[in-house]
Amino acid sequence: EQQRAILLRCASGFPLPPGVKMSYGTAGFRAEGMTLASTVFRTGVLAALRSLKMGSAAVGLMITASHNAVGDNGVKVADPSGSMMTQLWEPFADALAGAPTAEDFVRVVFEFVDEEKIPFGVARPSEILLGRDTRPSGEALLEAAKQGIAAVVGAVAIDMGILTTPQLHWMVRRRNEGRGASEDEYFRQLSDSFRRLMDLSPEGTLRNAYDPSVWVDGANGVGGEKLGELMKLLPAGLAVHVRNSGKDGEGILNDGVGADFVQKEKAIPHGFSTSDAGRRCASLDGDADRLVYFRITGEEGRKIDLTDGDKILSLFSLFIKEQLAKLEEGGEPAGRARLGAVQTAYANGASTEFLRRMGMEVAFTPTGVKHLHEKASEYDVGIYFEANGHGTVLFSDKFLRELEPLNAELATNHPGSESQKAALRLWEVSQLINQAVGDALSGFLLVEAILRHKGWSIEDWNSLYQDLPSRQLKVKVADRSVVTTANAETQVVNPPGLQEAIDAETAKYPNGRCFIRPSGTEDVVRVYAEAATQEAADGLARAVALEVG
Ligand code: 16G
Ligand code: ZN
């Protein structure tokens, strides 16, 4: 009863603005920053309840709108494992955020608490780790989150400061493993495992086209600044030049910069020019959970060669498969690990073909990190990436246990056999790459380590396969929820007849492939088309967009 009174009093201080309809969506709540205070307060309550439900394990609450405009903001919850909050709670999140009055809100809370048997008043405090990106509205929203958490008896907020989204997820995971979860430890773990991977590069590689200099577009967000800190710990042998780091005067967050811009527009971000032609460049998004590479070509009429999430997936798959093969040659059981790649329908068809030709198992899920992550965790080694650059590599506990004895043996038996070195490399990859969620900083270091290992230039990497020409369009509709899909978003279920129309258009184009889906973050329906030529891909996308709108 006391809890009810506290919640009601606190919630009254954060009324829902009229006309606002929030949905937890693909990656949490997102809206114009100033309209979000009520939603963030309520998400604070949600996070506290989630922790109570999970035996007071630490959970995370991140305030960010990723690659969206600087005026936008958003909020999402990380589960104790460090991954996205379970989808089972999303309807509750929507109900909380949508409750018109403080009284309604408190009623929704208590109904759910009863239903889920959430224990109030347990002895152990529930910890909610808070993070935010560099958006100006972040500070006030963080305060709203703290008040939401404070309104739940037994919950405490721990402010971890300005962070990348993956840093916060990493911290939540580590905290629940009972290990150090500070930012220093994050940087140390990444830089140490990277250094050891570099030390494990073969002495004389067949090729030696790797250039240690790389230029990074930080999207004028939190990633550039964090990369700057990480660089202080990196060994010589990698020269990172950060641009769009978000310092005063460098430009606006996500405005003509960042991974989303580079990948969608296939254009040169601000801060870069044709005088950078030929250089290996990388781009992070606003909260540093996406990474793409690009090379400015300097060729007439062509701006950049994009090296997207699909190519990162292909590079990681190739390297890990090679190391597993060495283990297998050495007769190690770990070499027979089940390795899988996970993609979405946005993956370029040429990447899927490349992976399958390499002998990889490839699975498809709907868009959104939570879907890919869940699928990838079914493998001994599961690699997932969205074309937009979000992804990581997940290692099962069973697989890591199989590697451990090999590592111990190597330590006492330097320099070790090829299979022992392969085991050590895979171990270091598992330490470097974020196990909670896709992380542009750790992904960046893994790409660099592999390119160096192989002695490859960005062109070598890019020529693993040639992308099929593709086109993305968005169609504004009155209500995007009338479109529903199945089979990892490749088939339209509703409205009836639409899939037949898409099939009929697609059949007109050689190598044509096309799908539509309602966006989870914007009020639009997205169209993706692929075909043998750019003109054909454009034509197919346009024709299908007309069917939709
Ligand atoms: C969010 C998702 C991303 C997805 C994108 C699709 C997370 C952390 N992020 O950014 O995975 O690709 O939404 O946006 O899940 P859309 O639904 O508007 O196309
Ligand atoms: Zn992001």
From TrEMBL:
Q: Where is the active site?
A: 66 (phosphoserine intermediate)
Catalytic reaction(s) noted: N-acetyl-alpha-D-glucosamine 1-phosphate = N-acetyl-D-glucosamine 6-phosphate
The organism's place on the tree of life at top rank? Eukaryota
- Pfam families associated with the record: AMG1_II, AMG1_III, PGM_PMM_I, PGM_PMM_IV
**Main EC class of this protein?**
isomerase
Per the UniProt entry, the Enzyme Commission number(s) are: 5.4.2.3
Can you tell me which residues bind Mg(2+)? 66, 285, 287, 289
User: Which pathway is it part of?
Assistant: Nucleotide-sugar biosynthesis; UDP-N-acetyl-alpha-D-glucosamine biosynthesis; N-acetyl-alpha-D-glucosamine 1-phosphate from alpha-D-glucosamine 6-phosphate (route I): step 2/2
Database matches in InterPro entries: A-D-PHexomutase_a/b/a-I, A-D-PHexomutase_a/b/a-I/II/III, A-D-PHexomutase_C, A-D-PHexomutase_C_sf, AMG1_II, AMG1_III, PAGM
Q: Where is the Alpha-D-phosphohexomutase alpha/beta/alpha domain?
A: 47-85, 123-176
Give me the residues that bind substrate, please. Answer: 386-388, 517-521, 526
Task: Name the SUPFAM superfamilies for this protein.
Answer: Phosphoglucomutase, C-terminal domain, Phosphoglucomutase, first 3 domains
Can you provide one Gene Ontology molecular function annotated for this UniProt record? phosphoacetylglucosamine mutase activity
User: Family, per the entry?
Assistant: Belongs to the phosphohexose mutase family.
Q: State the protein's name.
A: Phosphoacetylglucosamine mutase
Question: Which species expresses this protein natively?
Answer: Spirodela intermedia (Intermediate duckweed)
